[in-house]
Amino acid sequence: MVKDVQCGWDAGKAIQRYVSFSVDSGETCCILGPNGCGKTTLLKTCMGLIPRQAGQVTLDGRDIRRLSPKERAAAIAYVSQGHNPPFSYKVLDVVLLGRTSSVGVGQPSARDVQIAENALMDMGVYDLRDKVYTDISGGELQLVMIARALTQEPELLVLDEPTAALDYGNAMRVIAKIRELAERGYGVIMTTHSPDHAFMLDSNVLLLQRDRPMQFGPAVNVITERNMQDAYGVGVETKEFLTRHGSVVRMCIPVFDVQSADGADGAPADGADGAPADGAEGAPTESKTEQKEDGR
Length: 296
Description:
Helix content is 31%, strand content 23%. It has helices spanning 39-46, 69-75, 91-96, 100-103, 110-122, 138-150, 168-183, 195-201, 219-222, 225-232, 288-293, and strands spanning 2-7, 16-21, 28-32, 54-59, 62-63, 76-79, 156-160, 187-191, 204-209, 212-218, 236-242, 248-254, 284-285. The protein has a six-stranded mixed β-sheet, with helices on both faces. A four-stranded antiparallel β-sheet has the order 2-1-4-5, covered by helices on one side. Helix 5 (110-122) packs across helix 6 and helix 6 (138-150) runs parallel beside helix 7 (168-183). The longest helix is centred in the middle third of the chain and has 16 residues, at 168-183. 32% of the residues are buried.
């Protein structure tokens, strides 16, 4: 639990003040906010990597500062933003590094190897175990880094922009795996620049802004048109869509200042070719909020 935390790199200058949120087992918290608002600084403060200026951070009721490095490594696994492989290790050896807090300077046991192989299987990249990890793709590398974090057998996964620099397919694979991990009982805290990730993960959201109070709650309550305008300075609409499988998904759609009176200039008018008809596959559905506003 994080309560009234104040954080920043300089002792006399806070980037964020009075930040409070919590993450339980099986829950995900997405941290959103514009560049420079302190998302990564907050993550590192919560993990005890940089000293907090004020407030409390507890894990299972214990102050994070009272945990030894070994206890902290057993409880929290961190995947940093970006990773530049320095040496041409095999993928399995990289993942085994996550066992360091348990093994120390000794040789990993057969059980340690099994834990590492299970983590690779969990992330769907077991076939990479004998490949050199400087030769694999960015998406594969990110899944390998999460597998390394899993070998710590933590209670909490902390991921700093886990989809940064990934193409759409790899980003969606990573998000799908994060959702699976939460369903298996892991607590997950992640920073992201995409509000849609919070909807995909059905997560809580911590919205950080410059010189404004933080907001925390379910994604549907925090990711609103007003809040996105205030945080990012762009107009958006949040809409629900019906998929081909019959499930309803919510998305955050940017609104551009494009004037079109009759559908000209490439903007199809209502009902024109290319625009989904009401009730058609992919057509937006009215949210409960919109229905209430219409008085229905």
